[in-house]
Amino acid sequence: MEVKQIFDEFWTNYSKTPQLLRIIDVFLGYILLTGIIQFVYCALVGTFPFNSFLSGFISTVGSFILTVCLRIQIGPRSPFKITKQKAFFDYLLANFILHLWVMNFMG
Fold first, then answer.
1. Cα 55 to chain center, whole Å?
2. Is-contact 73 87, C-beta < 8 A?
3. What CA–CA distance (Å, rounded) separates 32 from 41?
4. Distance in angstroms (rounded) separating the CA atoms of residues 62 and 105
5. How does pLDDT run across 17-37, given as a tens digit for each residue?
6. Cα distance between residue 35 and residue 101, in whole Å
7. pTM score
């Protein structure tokens, strides 16, 4: 298979994805880009103050993981039998706890 055929097949299948999941995918891309920028900045400029860098990076990684979990829970082939509203509430609660920890760690 050529790369173009693979891309066309991927795009055809992905276009059938519900809009809510596509919005979550865009947000996941944003979080990934933010983490990459933080890591590159740390590599170029330095890690002082280290707790601030670590807090930001942990926040990015944690938000990415929680958002992937949300996407899995509300997807059409989800093994979980919960409503979208409950999954979103769990997501908000977990993000709140994560960011309380991040703010506490930052000092």
1. 16
2. yes
3. 14
4. 14
5. 899 999 999 999 999 999 999
6. 18
7. 0.87
